[in-house]
Amino acid sequence: MTIGFVPQASSALTSPASRTLEPAEWTDVGVPLLASPREVVKDLHARHLPAPSTAVVAVYDPDGRIRASASFAGRGGIVDGWEHRNALLSHLRRVIPHDLRLRKPVRTAVLMVCREGSPGWTPEDGAWMWGLRDACTLHGLRCGSYVTLTAGGWQVIGENRAGRTPNSASWSRAKTDPPPLAANGRPHTLRHASAR
């Protein structure tokens, strides 16, 4: 008689390769379409000024208003969605309480990743998409769109909607703009709000 755990017959369920989504799988998730993707991207870009290797996660109310958002540095080259899911959950927990008590998710999370390279899908994007889907499930949110922001512009993966501005180089131009002046002539202190 043996006591212990029996190894699983298939390691595909736990392998890092299975924690990624292809674009076809992403469309099967049933992600709701953004009503105005250009406005969403512009708003998130203006709030967080993401540089390459930055992820921005935002939570929207059913009426389309942003409820909370957070930006953080993502580690490049990771193709395992587990790590991305953990990072997303950590930041979601900091900016908004979970909705696990609701019967159906009401709020929607959208993820925008600013990165180098082509605007099309990459295996790293697949890991981010898996992480977003899983983090939404664990936080009681609807899984929303996944947007890439590259030097060529932005693209909503799975929706074939894209634009040229803002892009991954836009942050450097915005950072060099002079700070706004207060009534006394001194510059305002710039703050990034993560929750509204």
Automatic annotation (TrEMBL):
Region (Disordered) residue spans: 159-196
Name of the protein this chain belongs to: Uncharacterized protein
Species name: Actinacidiphila paucisporea
